[in-house]
Amino acid sequence: xxxxxxxxxxxxxxxxxxxxxxxxxxxxxxxxxxxxxxxxxxxxxxxxxxxxxxxxxxxxxxxxxxxxxxxxxxxxxxxxxxxxxxxxxxxxxxxxxxxxxxxxxxxxxxxxxxxxxxxxxxxxxxxxxxxxxxxxxxxxxxxxxxxxxxxxxxxxxxxxxxxxxxxxxxxxxxxxxxxxxxxxxxxxxxxxxxxxxxxxxxxxxxxxxxxxxxxxxxxxxxxxxxxxxxxxxxxxxxxxxxxxxxxxxxxxxxxxxxxxxxxxxxxxxxxxxxxxxxxxxxxxxxxxxxxxxxxxxxxxxxxx
Length: 304
Hints:
Elements lengths: L1 H27 L2 H8 L16 H22 L1 H33 L9 H11 L3 H40 L6 H29 L1 H6 L7 H27 L7 H20 L12 H14 L2
């Protein structure tokens, strides 16, 4: 009797134990169970986040790389780098100036200038004046290449001169302490004065006037007369326009001054061309260096 009762009870105990064991094994290999046991809550859905590259940081990095490359070139190959810089910007400035002139002429035509009623000869002359002149740009590039060499030698030279001279003036003449702001102001002022009365007369006489004129076909015998007539006006224009810009230029590192002047040349050429074609009186920018030299070179070539 005891055996018959114990057998079913043992069977039930065995079945319950087997079910509990299987459930424990299944729970042990279940992902949710393992995640919860390790303290990690599973996510219902994984989302892949795609981050777009930051264009601002890329542009900034490109700019920094270009600056570093230019610094390397100016330190390793100073003369050809600064010459090429000045020549390139001179060509770009002339191209922009010609574009400004063309736009001004187009605005005049749209305002009611009746070109169709003019003769074919006059129309062709107007077209030649408004069309892009590649030879003129070539002359400016060549002039800029030489000017870059000249000014690249001038800036280190004047930097040493003015550094010594400003110290002498402040300490010996004015009995002031040669330091800080006073030295910077004195050095900048002396640099601008030396450029105005030493460098510019020499560069205008030996390079900026004769070279574009010769490239334009002017006879060499006429060069001295052109220099005598135009140098005073160019010096006056240089003082009007470049004094403020030179305050910035002469406070930059020496290796960056050619680049700064080249950038200013672009704005200078654009302003000159815009004022010259706007019908204003010739009191300021109309007598500008580059536009004036091109004009007088073409005039002398026509009179040959």
